[in-house]
Amino acid sequence: MNLPDINVGTSLSQRMLSHVLNLPCTLRGTMVVPGLPRTATVGYGIPLWCIPPWPHGFPNGTWKPRTAPTLCRDWCWGNRQNRFYNKEVSKGRFNQVVGSYGKIGVMIKAGTITKGLYIDWKHEPTLVVEKEFFNPGKGAAVVRLKLKGLLNGNVTREVLKTDEQVEEITVENRAAQFLYQTGDQLTFMHPHSFEQFQVEKKVAAESKGYIKEGVEYQLVIYQGNVIGVVIPKRMNFKVIETEDAVKGDTVTGASKSAKLDTGIEIKVPLFIKKNEEIIVNTDTGDYVGRKN
Amino acid sequence: MDWQNLKNNQQDWQIFKLRSELIGRIRAFFEKAGFLEVQTPLLSPALVPESYLEVFQTELKDKLGNSAPAFLTPSPELWHKKLLAAGSGNIFEITKSFRNTDLGGRFHLPEFTLLEWYRTGADYFDTMEDCQELIRSAASGNKLFYQGKSVNLTPPFERISIIEAFAKYAGIDDKTLFDKKSLVSWALKNNYRISLEDDWEMVYNLVFLKEIEPKLGFGRPTIIYDFPAEFAPLAKTNPKDSRVKERFELYIAGVELADAYSELTDPIEQKKQFEKEVKLRRKMDKLEHPVDWDFIKALESGLPDCSGVALGVDRLIMLLADKTEIGEVVLFGESYVNN
């Protein structure tokens, strides 16, 4: 199994988890693991629950980490009082069946949901597109969410109490370069392991103009399927078509349109010439600067 | 909008030219109507307690090293009512207000520009008229396009009471609306994630935000009025229906733009509300701050009958400039989010 780079913010999948702990199981299906909490996210003050030392080892010595996972040194230590611990577990008793691991996720409060998070909404992996707090003047605040179902692409609006429990799903982020497109399939490849990923074109439909050969993207993987392609915030493009600036036109603020090598058009300042490389903010589609 | 963005996208200066013009038009509107422009402090040693607000605290220090708490005002209301009691007549102010709330939403910034005005000898129907005229002259036209939808600004705006709106958009009659049990069972039937322990206000909020608010202000602006008493502690009770108070909100294209009351002038009632809000703040674990009892004194000395409106200037510019994020129409507004 290939290990993703572990950074702050990385969500760990079940498989990843079992690998780190050297558990002789895949944590697939409905396998029950005593004492094992339900999710792992590294850093951001969100504790990592599952990292040894387990004070007393695993129950009956059935499963225990064979070696201290070397990856741990890069990780944050968790607060053991944290909700990720089952109450009994935090007392140091591990002979508890905590739950089924058919699906791993973490229950979070709706108030702490942020834009860009993946949640389980009505049994479907869902991306939070927008979140807004409302303080209607009385009563506790509520949040309004704009959600995008990642399997069917439906966008819905929901209103929730801030303390409503929502399941954050475990997704893997894998770095991958875009290789080529065949029919409806985009092919990506992990830069080190050369593992290839087939991605359906519709998954990246919104970022069509920003998919470029050789550029490294983050693939969002859920239960083995790529459900999203995260575009780098800033990308370089080559200008393939633009008018030359008219001499003497020195009006500040003037801009012209330019066609980029992926076919999209954006506004650029007048001094940009054909064949120049420029940097574009992919969030807004704005020109940022020249590539040095 | 940060400086680099502006440097690279010179056309975005248009937004800030519009902003400057708009402020000018607002001033001209109120000057013409004979209002006095006032400037009130942003820093205050005490506040009006409002249970839903998160406030910013800072410290005042003297040379001896003593310090006292001070707060950034979440609204200029506390000053304005004192001025009204002191005989100011009609007043308005364009000022910054501070609320220490969530970042990253499309419509909220911790520091934002508020237009607040008070008309004396008036009730909320009079300030509804003010709103209509102000919006039309601020937009300098009869039409507004927001996110591909056109809104006709010609008065009169649509007027609908809360009770009517619940009936029209959610099919909830007033008996169901004001009865906790029936409202909860309606919500449960309609797949709301609530439980029987939730209070009435919570269920009301969820239904309002899901069923009603997204439908307000399309085609023409909507004034939604007569809010349940629980949601308007600083407003006068409607003499015809004691379940509701004289408060209205103005919506354009689904965006909440202004909030107004027929102001409560009774100091005894106001004091009761203050104590209630203080308790609520404590219960909700919000920052405790000294209460501005001087405000009650001002009311005791006689607040004239008046109606006040607070209008989000940044949101109005969002509407006029057709922008979806509040940070896009406020200089350096995105810096909160990025840093």
Quick tags:
heterodimer; A: 292 residues; OB fold (Dihydrolipoamide Acetyltransferase, E2P); 4 domains; 6-stranded antiparallel β-sheet; 5-stranded antiparallel β-sheet; 38% strand; disordered N terminus; B: 339 residues; alpha+beta; BirA Bifunctional Protein, domain 2; 8-stranded mixed β-sheet; 3-stranded antiparallel β-sheet; 12 helices; globular
Walk me through the structure.
The complex is a heterodimer of chains A (292) and B (339). Chain A is globular. Residues 1-9, 22-38 and 40-104 of chain A have low confidence and may be disordered. Chain A starts with 13 loop residues before the first helix and ends with a strand. In chain A, strand 15 and strand 16 (265-269) form a beta hairpin. Chain A folds into 4 domains: 1-104, no CATH class; 106-169, SH3 type barrels, CATH 2.30.30; 172-230, Nucleic acid-binding proteins (OB fold (Dihydrolipoamide Acetyltransferase, E2P)), CATH 2.40.50.140; 234-290, OB fold (Dihydrolipoamide Acetyltransferase, E2P). In chain A, the strands form 4 sheets. A 6-stranded antiparallel beta sheet of chain A has the order 3-8-4-5-6-7, with no helix packed on it. Chain A has a 5-stranded antiparallel beta sheet with strand order 11-10-9-12-13, with no helix packed on it. With 292 residues, chain A is mainly beta. Helix content of chain A is 4%, strand content 38%. By secondary structure, chain B is α+β, with helices and mostly antiparallel strands. Chain B has a domain at 3-157 and 257-338: Bira Bifunctional Protein, Domain 2 (BirA Bifunctional Protein, domain 2). In chain B, helix 2 (13-32) packs across helix 11 (313-321) and helix 5 crosses helix 8 (200-212). The two termini of chain B are 13 Å apart. The A-B interface holds A 114-115, 130-142, 144, 157-161, 164, 252-255, 267, 269, 286-289 and B 4-5, 8-11, 13, 51-53, 101-102, 104-108, 193-194, 198-199, 201-202, 204-206, 208-210, 214, 230-233, 284.
